[in-house]
Design brief:
Chain lengths: ~80, ~450
């Protein structure tokens, strides 16, 4: 088991999981809010095609959570306005 | 940095793996490039862990044999976790750029696969609504069940293994709604009977669905999704539909995940950026034209480009494997066993065409849309803006529509919405082919371009 921070909360994950999967396993479904209408979005295509599950990983924005592998100590934030 | 190889294969799913294997066994030095961290593509996606649950796959044994063979082959160098963002012909050589390396070759095999086709409906952008492929990839790649109460919907044979996997791996309940009719297969029965292994595979899914009490309804579709006060999916509207996908009656079903897909869209971005000739297939998808050797048309003696698998037309993993083998042999100028492979390809192509006829996506879905339904997810273009641009501003082709509304101009570069926009506009084949051309294949930052000295 590894731990990562999501919006300041410490969440558990299994090594090798995608960030999108680790978030879903913790009942966290929102990864970003849209820049036009501030609507919540989450994982949609799951394979890096749709760019809907973007979030901020260790300070770097526009990361596709379905492609990023979760790491111990990773700091993850919802992206507001992608 | 520049790297040269005799043969370069892009995509490490069934087609690309087999292409690399056959080209290497025929004596070529091969590079196999894939955006993923592990071999297998979407089809053989796996966690890589020792205790990986193989029951998630229909035929993981043959997949792991092939992956092991490719990994052990000294003639194949694997570049995983490597995305190609541009492809061009420079001085009669094919140049593929990733973030740190320019790969150069005179013989290229593209096996870039496909992704789920999503059709818009009110609420399809609510978190909790995802493609069937997304639910499958969460389970196969990370061992995570997307939700507790899951509705699977759309059309196509892929919905069966997805529902079977979700129901047998811990979802509290799974309901499956297939838009096609239960008896559509009867019209293609002679072709089904020529492929008995497919009947066996299909029956195994039905058996799993039955033992996990999965309710399955035909001629039904999810036509709207609804969010709770925190913006998350709480229910979907399921409709009985007619053969044109028009709504006959509706009911609401509570769920926390709706996994919905209507077949697949081939990923032809790399192929079209190289100028390869495309055509529109019977299902309306744009695919790459190839000859009997899997060779794409726009090639000469100096450089040759081959395509295998879904980007030449959606046909499933068995056909992709055969096309990959033929492409690998063609790239290596070998004709060993080619006749047997060509015969097999013919039978599997017939089966693939029959499948597309059993699961047609009809245009009645346009009537599911409301004025505020999102059409382009990236740029948040709704149906009302789309209709205004079409009816008042006179945008009748996809390009004009894009310039006026921004639909298809966002981060996904039209991968999700463009096929739907073509259907809404009733676009010509030429318009569909032109609309698929993108000079940049995957988004890259200006900083990364500057680092490469390309600015």
């Amino acid at each position: 088991m590894i731990h990562f921070l999501f919006e300041g909360k410490s969440l558990q994950a299994t090594e090798g999981q995608s960030l999108a999967a680790a978030l879903l396993a913790n009942q966290e479904r929102i990864t970003r809010y849209t820049r036009g209408k501030s609507k919540p979005r989450g994982i949609f295509c799951g394979i890096g095609v749709c760019f809907d599950c973007l979030l901020i990983v260790d300070g770097v924005s526009n990361q596709r959570s379905c492609l990023v592998e979760v790491k111990d100590g990773m700091q993850v934030r919802i992206q507001d306005g992608a | 940095m520049e790297l040269r190889h005799q043969v370069i294969v892009v995509g490490a799913g069934p087609a690309g793996l087999n292409a690399a294997k056959y080209a290497a066994n025929a004596g070529c030095d091969v590079a196999l490039i894939d955006a993923g961290k592990k071999l297998g593509g979407q089809y053989w996606r796996h966690t890589g862990a020792q205790d990986f649950d193989q029951s998630l796959h229909h035929d993981f044994d043959s997949g792991s044999l092939l992956m092991d063979a490719v990994q052990a082959n000294p003639r194949i160098i694997i570049y995983s976790d490597t995305s190609i963002w541009s492809a061009s012909i420079i001085n009669d050589e094919i140049v593929l750029r990733s973030k740190s390396v320019a790969f150069i070759t005179q013989r290229l095999i593209l096996a870039t696969g496909a992704y789920d086709r999503a059709i818009p409906f009110p609420g399809w952008d609510i978190p909790g609504v995802m493609t069937a492929g997304a639910a499958q990839s969460l389970l196969k790649g990370s061992g995570v069940i997307a939700g507790k109460k899951i509705v699977v919907a759309g059309s196509g044979p892929f919905l069966l293994p997805v529902s079977a996997a979700l129901s047998s791996h811990g979802a509290d309940s799974v309901e499956l709604f297939e838009a096609s009719s239960a008896t559509a297969w009867l019209r293609q029965l002679h072709i089904l009977l020529q492929n008995p292994s497919k009947i066996v595979e299909g029956l195994s899914y039905f058996k799993t669905l039955q033992s996990h009490k999965v309710k399955m309804k035909y001629r039904s579709a999810v036509v709207a999704a609804h969010a709770d006060e925190s913006g998350l999916l709480k229910s979907v509207t399921v409709a009985k539909i007619d053969s044109d996908f028009k709504v006959l009656s509706v009911r609401e079903i509570e769920c926390d995940v709706a996994a919905i897909s209507y077949g697949f869209t081939p990923d032809i971005a790399l192929a079209t950026s190289l100028g390869l000739k495309a055509k529109v297939a019977s299902d309306g998808s744009t695919v790459i034209s190839v000859d009997g050797d899997q060779r794409a048309t726009y090639t000469n003696e100096k450089y040759q480009i081959f395509c295998a698998g879904e980007l030449t037309g959606v046909g499933g993993s068995d056909l992709a494997l055969v096309e990959g083998a033929i492409a690998g042999l063609s790239a290596a100028n070998s004709s060993q066993n080619k006749r047997t492979l060509v015969k097999l390809r013919k039978r599997l192509t017939r089966f693939a065409k029959a499948l597309l006829m059993v699961y047609p996506v009809q245009t009645g879905w346009k009537e599911w849309l409301k004025h505020d339904t999102t059409i382009c997810r990236c740029e948040e273009v709704d149906y009302q803006e789309f209709l205004y641009a079409g009816q008042v501003l006179g945008a009748s082709d996809a390009r004009t529509m894009k310039l006026m509304t921004r639909c298809g101009m966002g981060m996904c570069q039209g991968r999700i919405c463009s096929r739907n926009i073509f259907d809404l506009l009733g676009s010509s084949d030429d318009d569909r082919i032109r609309g698929g051309q993108r000079p940049i294949i995957t988004p890259i930052t200006l900083g990364e371009l500057a680092q490469e000295g390309l600015l």
